Amino acid sequence: MDKAFKALSDKTRRKILRDLRERDMSAGEIADLFDISKPSISHHLDALKNAGLVLSEKQGQHVIYSLNTTVFQDVMAWFLEFKE
After folding, report:
1. In whole angstroms, how large is the CA radius of gyration of the chain?
2. What is the pTM of this model?
3. What is the total count of domains within the chain?
4. Contacts by 48-51 with C-beta closer than 8 Å and gap 24+?
5. What pLDDT is stored for residue 70 in this prediction?
6. 11 — phi, psi (to 5°)?
């Protein structure tokens, strides 16, 4: 869970997660949404993958990223524990 919180501490990664809520995307499609270098986006995607927040699947020449809803739900449940 520590990796997830570290990954969520970055605003670019949070935006990537918001975008992936809408639809699965390739790394190139994600990079097109930002005004930063593709290697930087790759670094953010790796951090999200290592935290278990996103999944990746190779489809032909592209890697498609999707939100790992199971881990995301676990993180949200942890936050909601403090609401009580």
Report:
1. 13
2. 0.82
3. 1
4. 48/7, 48/13, 48/16, 48/17, 50/3, 50/7, 51/3, 51/4, 51/6, 51/7, 51/8
5. 80
6. -65, -35
Q: What letter represents residue 11's amino acid?
A: K
Question: Which residues of the chain are under the pLDDT cut of 50?
Answer: none
Domain that holds residue 72: 2-81
DSSP assignment of 27-51 equals: HHHHHHTSSS-HHHHHHHHHHHHHT
Structure tokens at 43: 């670094």
Which single residue is written with the structure tokens 């809803």? 69
DSSP 68: -
Burial of residue 19 (CB within 10 Å: 0-12, 13-18, 19+) is middle
